Predict the structure.
Amino acid sequence: MATTKTPKVNEVNEFLEIASDFEDPLEVIRESLSNSYDAGATEVEITIRDRPMGSEIIIEDNGEGMDYEDLESFFDLGNSTKRGRGDGSIGYKGHGTKIFYKSEEVLVNTAHGGVNLRAQMEQPWEKLNNRIMPEYEVRESTIKEGNPGTHIRITGFKSGQGFSPSTLTYNKIEHYLKWKTLAGSTAHFFTEDFHEMEITITLGDEIDDTKDELVMDNKLEFPEEQLEPGSGRFPESRMCKHYGRQELSVETEDGEETTIEVVGMIGGKEARNELPTYGKHSAQFGIWLAKDYIKVERLNDAISHDNEFLHFFFIANCQELELSANREKIRNKSSHIFQAIKEELSHYLSKIASDPWFKDYLEERRKANLSRLAESQQSSVEQRQQRINDREEFTPSNASEVLVGLERSNRNDEQPEITVEDYDPEADVNALVSLHGSLYASSIHRSLTDHFEADKPLESIDKIICWSYGDRDQLNELERHGYHGGEISFDLDTGQLTYRNGRKHNIHLVSVRDRY
Amino acid sequence: MPSSSGRLENSTFDITSKAGSARRGVLRINNTKLETPNLLPVVNFYAGGTASSLYGGGIHRTMKEFMNGDEEINGGDYDRYFDGIMTSVSSLTDYGISKERFEDYIDDPIKQRDVFDFDGTLFVDSGGFKFLGDRTLDGSDFEMEVDQEAIIEIQQHLGADILVNLDRPIAPDDDYETRVEKAQLTAKNVDQFLNLTDRTSHTRYLTVHGYNYSMLDTFLTEIENEIGRNRVHREFDGVALGSLVPLKDDKEKLITAVSDCREVLNDWGFDDLPLHVLGISSSAIPVLAAVGADTFDSSTYLHAAINGKYHTTLYNTKPIDEVDFAECECPVCSDSELVNRMQGDAEYQKDMLGAVAMHNLIVQKEEIECIREAIDKSGKEPLIEYLEQSLGRDKSMRPHAHRVVNESLGGYF
C-alpha cells in the first residue's frame, strides 16, 4: 500500500542556519539599505554603537513603512512580500532581515497609512540556540498620516569573530558601502527616473570619533577621465578612460532573452585609487557581474588572459542572474543564459581590450617602466664609476674582467703570452687558451678558491687562471680534507696544483695579478 | 560618394564607395564587369575540359558543369558565382601532356570554346608560385621552355582578360639578399612582359611581393631600377600581391601584408589601381577586403570539399556526413538530386564532392556580396557591424576583426 509523506522543515534550525551565514555588522548595513530602498526611502540613517554586551544598530528611514503583512514578512523566513514584484526591489528571498535575529532584541517601529506598529522580539539568538522559536509582540497605535517611515533598533548584535564593530571606521564603511552595497549602484547610468537615496552613517565615538557622521549617495561614480599621460615617473598612472553605458542583448539557443547593462572604465593605479576600494586592487578590479546594479561576483575570465584585468573596472548588470542568500555568489552558473551572458560579455570586452587607447595606455606604462629601468641603470653606472675612481688599481669583480686583466698583461708584454681563444661562461671548462702554440683547457675565476666553491672538477682542466689565489687558509683546508675524494696540494710559488684521485693531475695555476 | 577611375585603357576600375580602407568598385575589362571586392574561384580548365575527356577531370570537371549549368549537375543557373575566374598556366604544366595535345589545347580562347559557357572576367596567373620550394614550371613534355615569353603566349591563347608577369615569389625565411635577388629576377620578367604585351589590348597586372611596407617598397624600387620610373607608373592596370600562401594560416601577418601593400601603393601613387591578393580567400576575405584588397582568388572551396569538408559558414566546416542540408538555402542544397549525391548517392566521388565544392564556393561568394553591401551603405558603421557580427562572433577571428576595425575603420569607441 502506498503512503504519501510531506517532507518536514525544522524551522528553528533553518532560522539558525540563515542567520549564521551573516557575521559582519556591515552586512546588517547592507541588508538595511536594501530594505529602505525597497520601501521607497529617500533618506536612511544608520547608527552603530559598541556596547559591552554587543553592538547596537539603529536603522531609520523615511520609506513607506510596513503594514501587518510587511511586518510578518520582515520576521518570517522565505516569505518576502517583494517576491516577483518586478519593481526594481532588491530583496525578494525573505532572508536578509534574518540577520537581525543574531541579537538580544529586535525592536521595530514602523508607520504606514496613519498606523504605527511596534514589534518587539526579545532574546531571539539565545532562544534559537536553545531550539526555541522566538516570538514577537506587535502593538498598534494611531498616528498622524503623512509621516511614514521605519525605525529598527537591534540591541546586542552578535558579530562573528573578527567582525567586532570596534574594528569599524568611517573610511572602512564608506569603501564597503560603495563597493558592496547599493551605495555603489550603477542604476543611475541606465535609468531615467533613478531612485536617489541619501545615506547617513553615524558611529559611536567609542568606534570612530574622527567625524560626526558619513553622508553619501547611492551612485557609483568613476574617477574623472584623463586620456593623455601625465608627467613624472608614472605618467600612465592617472590615465583613465570611461566606457559609457552599453546594453547588450543576449539570446540563448533555446530562445531565452535578456539584456546586460555594462558600464566601466580602464585606469592606471592612481586613477583606480580614487575609487573606493575594499581590499587589494587585484581582488577588486576586473569585470563584475551585478544584479540590481550591485556588484556580486567577478568574471575575469571574460577578458582574455593577455590583458591584465587589474586595469579594468567594468560592472555588467543582468537581472537574470540568480544569487545565493547572502548575495555573495551567483547560483545559476551552469544555465544556458549564464553561458550566453558570459559569451556576450567576453565579446564586448574583447572590443575594449582592442581599443587603441588601451594599447596606448599599456605602451605608456611600458615606456615609463623602461625609463625607470634606464634611470636605475644610470644610477648603477654612476656607482660603478665611483668605484673605479675610488680604487687604486684594476681589480676584477668577475671572471670576464679577469680575461680583460689577462689581455692587458699580454699587451704589457708579460711573459709567457697567454691568449684566450674561446670563452663560454656557462661551461665547466670555461676557456680554451693558447700558450706557445698549444691549446689548454682552462677554468677562469676571480680567485682560485672560486673554482672549488663552484664545485668544479679538476680532471678535465690543464690550467686555472685567476686574478689572485684568494684565501690561503681555505686552500690549506682543501689540502687537509681533499677535494672530490682525491688528495690535493698547492705550490703557489711555482704555480702548481697537484691532484691525485686514482691518477695524478698537474694543473698550472696562473695568477694574473702577479703578472703586473 | 567617392569615385575614381583607374588608368586602364581597355578597361576601367571605378571605386564607387569606401568605408575606411575598404573599397567598393566595378572592374570593367573588355565586355566583362566584375563587382569588387570579389572572389575569383580557381578553375582548372584543362582537367575534364574537353568534349573527349568525358569521364576524366574529376571534381574539376564537375565544377565546369556547374559553371555551364549542364544536365550532369541537374541543370540550374550558377552563372553569377562565375562572374570572374582565376586559372593558372601551371594547370597545363602540371599534366604530362604532349606538344600536340598542348598546342591543340591552347588553340582556342577559353571563352570561345563550345564546351564552356563562361563570359566572366578571366584572370590567368603566370604560375610563378611554382618556383617556391624549388619547384619549377616544367614545359618539357610539350617541348617548351617555360619563360616569360612562353607564359604570355599561353595567357594570350587562353584569352586572358587579365595578364600577370612571371614572378619569383619570396618565402617567409628568405633573407634580405635573397628577396632582392628574386625581385631583380622578377623585374627582368616585368621588363619583358611590358615589351611583349600591348596595353591597348591587354589588362596588365604587376605582381608585388613582400610581407610588410619596407619589403614591398624595396621590391618596387628594384622594379623601378630595372624598367624605369615612367614605365612603373604608367604601364600597369592593376597590382597582384603574391607570396602570401605560406602565411595563409597567420591572419595577423596577412593583414599586415595587405594593409601595408595598400599603404605602399598609395605612397607610390597606385591608389586607384585594383589590388588583387593571390591565393588567399575563405576566412581571410572579410578582413583583407576591409584593409583594401579588391579581388581574391583561391581554390579552398575545392580543397575543403576534396577533404570532405562542407562550409557551414565562411569560418566553419563540418564533415559531409554530419551535415543537415536542410539548414542551407543555397541552390545546391535546395536541389534534392544534388543533396542525394552529397549524402553519398552518387556514381562517382566527383559528383558528390563537386556539389560540396559548389556549395562551399557559394558560401564564399555570398559572404563577399554581404561585404559589398556593407561598404555600399554610407559610413563605416555598416562594415563595422558586419565584421562584428561575422568574424567578431568567432573567437579565433575576433582579434583580427578588432584590429581591422581599429586600424582601418576608426575603432569602436
